[in-house]
Structures are given as C-alpha cells and as structure tokens.
Amino acid sequence: MCLINFHFQDHSTYKLIITANRDEGYNRPTKEAHFWEDTPYILAGRDLLQMGTWLGITKQGRFAALTNYRDPRLPETGRHSRGAIVRDFLSQSTETGDFLTRLQKHKSDYAGFNLLVGNSDELVHYNNILDKITKIAPGTHGLSNHTLNTPWPKVTKGRERLSRYFKDSNSVSADKLFEITADAERAPDHMLPDTGVGIELERMLSPLFITSPEYGTRSSTVLLIDKNNNVTFVERTFEKGRLKQENTFEFTIQPSI
C-alpha cells in the first residue's frame, strides 16, 4: 500500500513538491526509475510484471501517480492493470479532463485505485470506488489507500511533517524530505483505522515506511518542480528495508509535443 504526501502551488520556489513511497511484495519484479526505452520521454520506475508504473513524469511535464484502494470486500484484481492507467496518461497528450471522463466510463475494469494526474500547474484526484473527481487546491495533501486527505495516522503524520518542514525552512533538501518518507514508527493501536484487514496487518501497514518479511516499501521518490519548470526527480530503492541505490534525474520541462 503506497503513500503520497505533496505540497502544491504554495511555496516561494517550487510549484510542486512530492514525497512518495511505493509498497509492494518483495518478489514482484521491478525496474528502478529511468527514461523508458520504448517511450523515452517518460521517467518512471516500471513494474516488469504488467509493464505499467505507479508514479512518473514526462519531459513535457505531465505527471501521474496511483495508489491502491484498500477494502478486502472488493476484488483484488480487475480486467486491466492499474499501473496501465499511469502509463497511458503519461504516454498520451489527451487533456486531463478528457482522460478522466474516459476513465470514469471504464472504472469497473480496474480494482480500486486513487489517481493523481495533471502537471505542476493543475492537479486532479480521482477515486474509482467513490467515483469522485477533485481539483487539488493549493497546500499540503496526503493520499494513501482510502481517498484524498483521509486522516489515517500515516497520512496525517506525513502531511504535518511536510508542512512543518516548509514553515521552518524556505530551502528544500531532498535528503530532508527522504527523512520524512523513512519514518518507520508504527501508529498506536487506538489511532489505527479499521479497514477490515485485522489488527496485525493494520499495525504493519501503519508507518510511512513499511517493513515486513514479505512486503514493504520498495522505493521512495522525491519530485521537485520549480517555478522555472526545472525538474528534480530522486528515487531511492530498497531491498527488504535496506537502501539499495539512489538515482537522480534533472531536466527542464519542454514544450508539449
């Protein structure tokens, strides 16, 4: 289960600041962030099982990220991979509104998801279970596995730490932002949500950074887009909780194709 905390259109230097963790089974084949060989304007990690992705940006500034929707009563899989949604948005030039209108018509083809799409000037959230589209307002937001800004402990903690960091310092350091994504403290039982998966699993899933024998945080990403459209994308990948490698990409957003 993934987590995205982000600061949008409310900073003196940056239009968009994203900190994100991708949580997945350790045995799922994955390639670290790179410019894709078959679509070289897309920068993202890649799920090598379904060839989609969970978070990415293009050289033209299109951004998309996705989290699963947690409800054990719902089907775990759909006709199509959810990672294909992010891939499709990034690979197309369709306007965000038109893309979401089309996606709504096929929302039942996918297991439950939350989607962030747009660019550093306009972001939109869509949840296919609640079937709700929300234009993102300026400020600090969090998204895990229910819907936008649901007050789960990890979402609230990530938002508060991100917001407090910007109040304390006008400068932005990727290392400091990674300190937030690396928070592995479990929430106390009385603060845990009841999502139907049982108390032991709720405890394991409650930190921002998850570790367990078979499942946990596979990668953390910091994405910065400044007011001159300069992009900094930093990804740290992990092997069962231990840092494996770090890759940094920097470029300036190009005019749309």
Structure characterization notes:
With 257 residues, the chain is of the alpha+beta class. The chain has one domain (3-251): Penicillin V Acylase, Chain A (4-Layer Sandwich). Helices cover 19% and strands 36% of the residues. The protein has five helices and 13 strands. It has helices at residues 83-91, 96-105, 153-168, 174-181, 199-205, and strands spanning 3-8, 14-25, 30-35, 42-47, 55-58, 63-68, 113-118, 123-127, 132-135, 139-143, 215-226, 230-239, 242-252. Strands 3-4-5-6-7-8-9 form a seven-stranded antiparallel β-sheet, with helices on one face. Strand 7 and strand 8 form a beta hairpin. It is globular, with a radius of gyration of 17 Å. The model has no long low-confidence stretch (mean pLDDT 96).
- The chain-level structural class is alpha+beta
Distance between the termini: 34 Å
CATH class: Alpha Beta
Shape-level CATH architecture: 4-Layer Sandwich
Q: What's the pLDDT, averaged over the residues?
A: 96
Question: How helical, in percent, are the residues?
Answer: 10-25%
Radius of gyration over all CA atoms, rounded: 17 Å
- How many helical elements? 5
Provide keyphrases for this structure.
single chain, 19% helix, NRDE family protein, alpha+beta, seven-stranded antiparallel sheet, TANGO2, six-stranded antiparallel sheet, Penicillin V Acylase, Chain A, globular, 257 residues
Brief summary of the model shown:
About 20% of the residues lie in helices and about 35% in strands. It has about 260 residues and is of the alpha+beta class. The strands form two sheets. Strands 3-4-5-6-7-8-9 form a seven-stranded antiparallel sheet, with helices on one face.
